[in-house]
Amino acid sequence: MTRCCIPSVSATLLALLLGSVASAQPASAPPSACTQPADMAPSQLYGLWQLTLWPQEGGSEAAPASTGALLFERHPEYPGSVRGNLKRSTVGNDRQALVSGDVTDGEFNLDESADGVTMDAVWEGNVTPASCAQELRGIRRPAQGRTGEGPVMNFVLKKAPGWR
Q1: pLDDT tens-digit profile of 24-43?
Q2: Which domains are assigned to the chain?
Q3: What is the pTM of this model?
């Protein structure tokens, strides 16, 4: 499992990509043979993912507490892993973080760090079986000892159109 977060894409590039999601052309229909969750390769994480977060206690996906995007690239130091940037809204401000993680046998794991050194949150989830490797669902929780990082949140990541 990778646990090193160093920026690989500038915040400006991420902002440009986020802006282009709204104007992206719809992706063509997925191939008839979808990737099964257990067969998802880390390279299938590369690209832009749209994020929705909502509190595990008393929240709902329909009324998210935070939305944003993750941009994943190949991790230069750990084959089979990804590294990237997270940008999301929160009450009163926007947050940016560096992320590093992987997908193995349909299980998705990610570390989040605002400064690239201290782990702020961990993400654990699964590839949604019917999504053709285009959706991930799970839980984002504060890293051990990081009580100020908010409540445990459910998340859904959906691959942005045009990034198949």
Answers
A1: 434 444 445 788 899 999 99
A2: 11-15+37-159 (2.40.128.120)
A3: 0.78
